[in-house]
Structures are given as C-alpha cells and as structure tokens.
Known about the structure:
Layout: E1 13-19, E2 26-29, H1 44-58, H2 69-72, E3 88-95, E4 100-107, H3 108-113, E5 117-119, H4 133-140, H5 149-163, H6 170-182, E6 188-192, H7 193-198, H8 206-213, E7 217-219, E8 230-235, H9 238-241, H10 248-261, H11 264-267, H12 271-282, E9 290-294, H13 295-301, H14 309-318, E10 322-327, E11 333-338
Antiparallel strand pairs: 1-2, 1-4, 3-4, 3-5, 6-8, 7-8, 9-11, 10-11
Helix pairs in contact: 5-6, 5-10, 6-8, 6-10, 6-12, 10-12, 12-14
Amino acid sequence: MRVRTRCPAVRRTWIVELRPQAGGPVLVCQHCPQNGSPLAAASARSAALAHLARHARCDVLPVHMRTCQCHERGCCWHPRHRGCAGPIRLLLARERGGRVWRLADSCTACAAATDQSAVVPDTILSAATPWPSAASRRRRGRQPRGPGEQTRVREMLSYLAAALPADTGAAARLVALQCALRMDAAANVQLPTGILRGLRLGHCSEPWQELERVRWLSRIPATPEGDTATVAARLFDAALLTQSPARPDRRRAADWVLRAARPTRVAAGGPLPQLAAVCLAAYTPHGAGNGLTEADRMARDCGLDPSALPDVLDQLTTAGLLASWNVCPDSGDLRWTQAAQCVGGL
Length: 346
Ligand SMILES: [Zn+2]
Ligand SMILES: [Zn+2]
Ligand SMILES: [Zn+2]
C-alpha cells in the first residue's frame, strides 16, 4: 500500500437532487457537470442511487481514513446528538420527500439519529476496495464472514426501505429481499420457484412487474430449453451491483428470511404479515422473546404508513406469532413479546 505523506481533507459526501422539470425530473449532482436529460419519474430514484453509488465506488478510502461526515458538518443532519460513536458506515439519506438523496460516511450514532436514512449493507461497495480483505481483516479484527444472518437481513430491509419507493407492496419487498440476498457478482439472480411457492407467490407476476416498473430489476425471459424451476432476473440497483459474490452467509440470510416468513398461520394472511414477521424477527434479539425498535422504522421497513402498523401487529397476534405488543405514545417505541412457542425458533 502506498504511504501518504499528508492527509488531505476527507470528503465523502455526495448529494444529488431530482429537480422537477417539464418532461420529467432532472438529476443534478453537486460534483458533476449537468447533463440535464430528463428521467422517467418511476426510475428517477434508481438513477439517483446509481449515480451516488458510482461516486462512492470511485472515491474508495481505507476504513481508517474515513470520518463521520455528519460530525464534520456540526451534526446538522439530525435533531439530537449524543456524540459520535461506533464504526463508520455509508449512510443513504432521503430529504425533501425524495427530491434530495445523500450518501455519506457516518458514524453509527449519527446514522441512528438520522431520519429517513439507511445504512448501506456491509457487503455493498466493499468489492471495489483496492486493499486485500485479509489485510483489512487483520487491521480491523473484522469477522471473516461479516455480520450474522439477522443483522444482514435487518440492514437489507432498511436499505430496501430507502431504495424502493415507499408505496412498494409487501409481496414486491419479499421478492426484492430474496433477490438482493441471492444475487451473484454480476447482479443476476436465479430465484427457485420453490422459494416463491414457499412465500405463496409462486404464480404471482405482480410483485415482479412492480419491481420492473420502478427499474429495480428486469426479468430475463426463459428460453424454451431453459430452466423452468427458477425465475431469472437482473438487478439494476447499482449500489447492490458491487456486492461481493453470493457467498454462503448471504444465502443463509435469505434462508433465514424464509423461515421467519413461513409460519403457516402467518403466511395464510398474505405477504404483508409475512414481511412484518420477518421485520419483527430481524429486530428480536436471538432467544430473547421480546424486542424493541421505533414504530416508524418498523412501518418503513414494511412499506407501511405508521397508522397501518397496528392492524398488521394485531394480525400477527391473532396468528399466534406475538403474545403482545404496544407503542409508547411519548417515545414512539414499539415493544413486542413473541408467543412462547415462537421464541428462539429461527
Ligand atoms: Zn455526480
Ligand atoms: Zn451527526
Ligand atoms: Zn457522527
């Protein structure tokens, strides 16, 4: 590795605006000359994220040189501040109703305090790092296999909550989650139809059409001699494109999602309770039997308006997954207790 003799100011913040114009929104980047070509409204979000991801890939820095960009700006991106803490991660944040998107290095504490944001899952963008991972593991003492299944799923849910339009349905989110966790290094995925049947989405093309409409993926038509036991698709989400190849630990996370979504009485309720069951499982400490997170975060991960969350939680209670739940009116925290037979079931 080259030794630097001086440290230039580290700037790892990229901001793009989708500026409404006649003919469609135009992407305006603070770092790039404007090309001004209008985008289709449905795919503008994908284009913004792709542009940000390109910047992050081009400006890779070793971890020890990355600093909390939020802190460097006086923590003006979030309401309260208890001091920077925790590892530096890339944070994707949405402002002004999705008109402005920001990708920046942020410490864990600032990331947690920033509304409308998602930490970019750990594997994303790491493939572009020019330093050998073994060396960085030694330096940082990082676990070779990365975070566990539950953390991986939690981060991917949060990332998809930011990357997909807010009105994306639960079935499309379940499909997107499986695709993102099972894609290969070229951003292609072969999703076994058995998995779709397990999610009760076997003969359902609407979730796929929904993801195609927003340019998140495109199905690859099957050839006559092709494999009919899978649905093939290519993902367009450029932030995901640089993910490391489909490693066993990421596929294990995809299998973990299936186990969380499949309790029979939950699955019978349709995709929304299934997705909510996955979200709750992702935020329940292993073996604890109860969990706590912000109700707004849970609603966002499920693609729901917060006012619609109680109905879904009631459904999960009726289905025997939850023993109880409540939302604290002051803090907005959602607490839940799993039904005894579901504790530690994953
Ligand atoms: Zn740019
Ligand atoms: Zn901050
Ligand atoms: Zn910070």
